[in-house]
């Protein structure tokens, strides 16, 4: 609330009028990584780290943006929305462009200022949160009546087409649909979803931040997606009903993909096993069996490291450092990869201790001081009412 109150003050100082304020959260994902763009399942949740965005119409054709935490601003007009050389405005402009392309009436210019506490480059989807905050805010001020799913889909389209990262729907969906004390089991084949209670007091979700983000992250991400598509093509030549890896099996991969392309086989084999691992992990959750769930997280990490090859030595080190720790039930890299956070399920009363010990060992081996966060599960994109 302090962030939102300061944001309001700063908006009024800059733009001389009262804004609407919107909050949109970052996300974690417990299991189901690199499955969303393969019509698989994911198990994310929104967390207590947010983007706060203030917005008001300005009666001109100008789009004026202000990134409070960067002390940076950007200005354009509604008929000249195009990619910038700064990146941060692109998340907002990309959403405006999507609304224009879909014939939503953005009838006058707007002023936007934003701030937040989602660490950048940590794999907690600060960019998706900014996109969803923008879509929600525009829908509200222009009475566009966008449904929650439309907000997520438009935001994803902005990331795909404007920013240029061919991401799936997980991050945007989690930001919009988050629910306190619940995970979201999202089926990316048809966007059906189910809330799964996660209200244990015995376990905490600890995020350890490598503090690195290797530059190949987005090019490698797009390349993985293409490799998955290639695998599907190879199978579909023989089994036309297979239109995504969701419908593929290890047998099909061995028969139709491995003899032709060993790398594509490895990538697809990881995805197929991760989709079924998530289903089993949900069974574990039903039984409150966090020990079994945690083991599957370690398996996911191994797949991401060795088969999908989207990990990096810093992420591997953080997982290695907790592997034999009796208080850590499971750990793995999270999100796209090549840096960011690991997600750890830790015995609640030991979470801080584990974090301190791992941070000290990581510092010794890499020279890097790392922050950690204990994630609380939060609700999704909403208007903030300040009293
Ligand atoms: C990034 C993308 C998501 C998803 C994950 C990997 O966070 O934005 O769509 O693909 O990577 O699971």
Distance between the termini: 10 Å
Largest sheet, order of strands side by side?
A: 5-4-6-3-1-13
Largest sheet: 6 strands, mixed
Which radius of gyration do the C-alpha atoms yield?
Answer: 21 Å
List each distinct ligand once. alpha-D-galactopyranose
CATH topology of the largest domain: Ribosomal Protein S5, domain 2
Percent of residues in beta strands: 15-25%
Categorize the overall geometry. globular
Task: Describe, in plain words, how this protein is organized in 3D.
By secondary structure, this protein is α+β, with helices and mostly antiparallel strands. It has two domains: 2-199 and 378-383, Ribosomal Protein S5, domain 2 (2-Layer Sandwich); 203-375, GHMP kinase, C-terminal domain (Alpha-Beta Plaits), CATH 3.30.70.890. The protein is 42% helix and 23% strand. It has helices at residues 2-15, 88-101, 126-141, 148-163, 170-177, 217-236, 250-257, 262-286, 290-306, 313-322, 351-366; strands at residues 20-29, 41-42, 44-57, 62-67, 72-77, 110-116, 182-187, 192-197, 203-213, 328-333, 339-347, 372-375, 382-383. The strands form three sheets. Strands 5-4-6-3-1-13 form a six-stranded mixed beta sheet, with helices on both faces. A four-stranded antiparallel beta sheet has the order 10-11-9-12. The relative contact order is 0.17. The mean pLDDT is 97. The structure holds alpha-D-galactopyranose (GLA).
